[in-house]
């Protein structure tokens, strides 16, 4: 029973639902996400299952929301975004020197 549970946890599967497993550290979620997204097994049509560093737990939505919040916070802290002339919208800064986002 325990072995079966651990297999499901490692594979990112709960029951029959397949998910993309995303292991990241809170200090650098963008880099961790990039590693996950580059995997051959990554399927953008599947949901994410997020686990932070050495923290225990199963993702029932909370860790994914926290991942998205941290990813936006970290990406907004970099000069990859610029405001439109009206100031109401953000757009990708084409003059960005931030290497991780230069590929976008």
Per-chain topology:
Layout: H1 2-11, E1 19-24, H2 29-37, E2 47-52, H3 62-76, E3 81-83, E4 90-92, H4 99-102
Parallel strand pairs: 1-2
Antiparallel strand pairs: 3-4
What's the CATH class label? Alpha Beta
Q: CATH superfamily name? A: Hect, E3 ligase catalytic domains
N-to-C CA distance: 44 Å
User: How many β-strand stretches?
Assistant: 4
Query: According to CATH, what is the topology?
Result: Hect, E3 ligase catalytic domain fold
Gyration radius from CA atoms, angstroms: 16 Å
Number of domains: 1
Secondary-structure element order, N to C: HEHEHEEH
What is the count of DSSP helices, taking H or I runs of 4+ residues? 4
Strand order of the largest sheet: 1-2
Low-confidence stretches: 100-104
Q: Sum up the overall morphology in one term.
A: elongated
Average of per-residue pLDDT values? 76
What is the second-level CATH architecture? Answer: Alpha-Beta Complex
* Class based on secondary structure composition and strand pairing: alpha+beta
How is the biggest beta sheet arranged? 2 strands, parallel
Estimate percent helicity: 25-40%
Q: What fraction of residues sit in β-strands?
A: 15-25%
């Amino acid at each position: 029973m325990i072995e079966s549970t651990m297999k499901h946890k490692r594979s990112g599967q709960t029951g029959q639902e397949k998910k993309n497993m995303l292991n990241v550290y809170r200090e650098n979620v963008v880099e961790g996400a990039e590693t996950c997204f580059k995997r051959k097994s990554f399927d953008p049509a599947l949901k994410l299952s997020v686990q932070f560093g050495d923290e225990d737990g199963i993702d029932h939505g909370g860790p994914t929301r926290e991942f998205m919040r941290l990813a936006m916070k970290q990406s907004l802290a970099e000069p990859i975004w610029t405001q439109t002339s009206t100031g109401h919208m953000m757009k990708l800064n084409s003059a960005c020197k931030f290497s991780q986002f230069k590929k976008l």
